[in-house]
Design goal:
This protein has 113 residues and is of the alpha/beta class. The protein has one domain (3-103): Macrophage Migration Inhibitory Factor (2-Layer Sandwich), CATH 3.30.429. Helices cover 30% and strands 27% of the residues. It has helices spanning 15-30, 72-89, and strands spanning 3-9, 41-46, 59-67, 95-103. A four-stranded mixed sheet has the order 2-1-3-4, with helices on one face. Helix 2 (72-89) links the parallel strand 3 (59-67) and strand 4. Helix 1 (15-30) packs antiparallel against helix 2. The two termini are 15 Å apart.
Length: 113
């Protein structure tokens, strides 16, 4: 915990783009007082086929999963930081969005080796 899932289509076109998106997400989350950077996991899911009603052909979406109990203000601070940091680097991307979601603390389980 926390988990950051980056989804994209036609947004990250080079290995450098992918590395930067992953690192920017890690760093943005790690700057938050309420997140331990060492606990962050970032994953990427590319999509090859997309269709948007408005004709846009690229997107980058981050879903951030945090254990429940964080205030809406803290979650907004995280989403705003992610959006700003990714937006500075990926000016060519037509749509960048962020969604912060709660994970149920009572049922979340993890195993570390």
């Amino acid at each position: 915990m926390p988990h950051f899932i980056l989804e994209h289509a036609n947004a990250l076109t080079t290995d450098a783009d992918i590395r930067d998106a992953l690192e920017i997400t890690l760093e943005s989350g790690g700057r938050m007082d309420f997140i331990n950077k060492a606990d962050i996991k970032v994953r990427l899911i590319p999509y090859t086929d997309v269709l948007a009603g408005d004709g846009r052909t690229s997107f980058l979406h981050v879903t951030a999963y945090l254990l429940d109990g964080r205030s809406d203000d803290l979650k907004k601070t995280l989403s705003t930081a992610l959006l700003a940091d990714l937006g500075k680097r990926f000016l060519q991307v037509h749509c960048i969005t962020v969604d912060v979601r709660d994970m149920n603390r009572a049922s979340y389980a993890k195993r570390l080796v």
